[in-house]
Inverse folding.
């Protein structure tokens, strides 16, 4: 198995040295110094406060790495912000074992996530509130697609052309073309096939 390249950030130097020393001994990972060399980032902090959030936002602005967050206190941390900053695993800093940390790093590199049950439950509740109070009133879903965009994409996926879609949905052909153009422009999709693939990955068609 190829070793996972991991970069370490910590809000105190002692933790940084300890993590580096431990992970350098593990055959599953290799510690690197620069984010652009890494597959995964580990951030260790006592609490998710302004300093930790700034580090995460800076990392996300640089392109973002899957991040394993070790924290002593999650508190009222903005979970949706953590997700936006590519945090895919949250571990209790004071009780996590070395094996658990390495397992999370390997999982993050493979595109998987690890969240404590209580954190996952809170995150799902906040996503539900976001859907109900922000997205739904504006005709959007968590996928970023409007209901009529989903209707159009579902028919495109069935192989229907613009004229057929217009008749089926009681739109003009111009409206169908505008729906597709606005959607692909807003979501930076290249063409109809890319839009269908996006909707399939989002699980809306």
């Amino acid at each position: 198995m190829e070793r996972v390249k991991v970069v370490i950030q910590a809000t105190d130097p002692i933790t940084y040295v300890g993590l580096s020393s431990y992970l350098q001994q593990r055959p599953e990972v290799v510690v690197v110094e620069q984010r652009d060399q890494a597959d995964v980032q580990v951030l260790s902090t006592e609490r998710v406060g302004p300093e930790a959030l700034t580090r995460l936002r800076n990392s996300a602005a640089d392109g973002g790495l899957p991040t394993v967050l070790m924290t002593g206190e999650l508190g009222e941390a903005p979970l949706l912000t953590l997700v936006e900053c590519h945090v895919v695993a949250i571990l209790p800093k004071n009780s996590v074992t070395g094996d658990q940390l390495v397992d999370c790093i390997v999982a993050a590199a493979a595109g998987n996530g690890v969240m404590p049950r209580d954190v996952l439950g809170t995150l799902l509740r906040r996503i539900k509130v976001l859907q109900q109070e922000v997205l739904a009133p504006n005709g959007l879903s968590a996928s970023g697609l409007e209901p009529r965009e989903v209707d159009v994409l579902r028919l495109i996926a069935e192989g229907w052309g613009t004229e057929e879609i217009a008749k089926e949905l009681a739109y003009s052909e111009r409206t169908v073309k505008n729906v597709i153009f606005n959607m692909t422009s807003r979501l930076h999709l290249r063409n109809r096939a890319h839009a269908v693939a996006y909707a399939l990955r989002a699980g809306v068609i």
Notes: Residues 4-117 form a domain with the Rossmann fold fold (CATH 3.40.50.2300). The radius of gyration is 21 Å.
